[in-house]
Amino acid sequence: CERIDYTDFAADAPCIKLRFAWKHPNAYNVDNPSEELVNTLNEARSLPQENLDMYWRVQLPYVSFSIVDSLNATQLMQVSVIGVESRYSLSRSYTDVSANMNWLQVDNQLSQASAGVILAPKTRKHPQPTLRIHTRKNNLLSNEHLNSYDTVQLVLQELDITLEQKTIVAFFLMIKGYKRERASDLNTSSAL
């Protein structure tokens, strides 16, 4: 996926690296429990006493990607997302869906940029997740024509945004160049 020569990297061919980890329940040392195991057990105890038909939790500790102008071999921005977690639980009475994103930051990668960070959560004494989403559907009151929700929550923390004209122009030129290249590729393929 990593390439040295940018000319070999097609503009519409993404480069994606994923890594997954799964821990078998027997992998935990019960005699000396870790903080992660204690938190997991406490979360399980805090769930409603009703039997769950389904429960899953997905964690993505860190994702980072760059926005690159491949025509000019210039990295424009780097987006970093830290601490993404999603949960889903289903019981006879309720369907809960929640997602948290602890940190989102967009860094300016252009040379001689006066502001290194384009977007980031405002610094707080007691940090909260950057984005929280939670819905609780009441399955007993819902039917095929109407969904009843007890909770619909969307919380977005205050963000600091710093944009420079140089960044906006570079991003605009990247999109313009991509559209021009895409149009010439379509014209070339239709001529064949």
Question: From N to C, what is the helix and strand string?
Answer: HEEEEEEEH
Measured distance between first and last alpha carbons: 30 Å
Number of helices: 2
The radius of gyration over CA amounts to 23 Å
- The overall pLDDT average reads 80
What's the shape?
extended
Count every beta strand, where a strand is a DSSP E run of 2 or more residues: 7
Stretches where pLDDT falls below 50 for ≥5 residues? 1-13
> What structural class do the secondary elements suggest?
alpha+beta
Helix content: 10-25%
Summarize the biggest pleated sheet.
Answer: 7 strands, antiparallel
Percentage of β-strand residues:
35-45%
Brief rundown of the structure:
By secondary structure, the chain is an alpha+beta fold. Helices cover 20% and strands 38% of the residues.
Question: What does the secondary structure layout of this molecule look like, with pairings?
Answer:
Blueprint: H1 35-46, E1 54-69, E2 74-90, E3 94-108, E4 117-121, E5 131-138, E6 148-156, E7 159-161, H2 165-191
Antiparallel strand pairs: 1-2, 2-3, 3-4, 3-5, 4-7, 5-6
Describe this structure in words.
With 192 residues, the protein is of the alpha+beta class. It contains two helices and seven strands, in the order H-E-E-E-E-E-E-E-H. It has helices at residues 35-46, 165-191; strands spanning 54-69, 74-90, 94-108, 117-121, 131-138, 148-156, 159-161. Strands 1, 2, 3, 4, 5, 6 and 7 form a seven-stranded antiparallel β-sheet that branches. A hairpin with a 4-residue loop joins strand 1 (54-69) and strand 2. The longest helix is centred in the C-terminal third of the chain and has 27 residues, at 165-191. The chain is extended, with a radius of gyration of 23 Å. It starts with 34 loop residues before the first helix and ends with a helix.
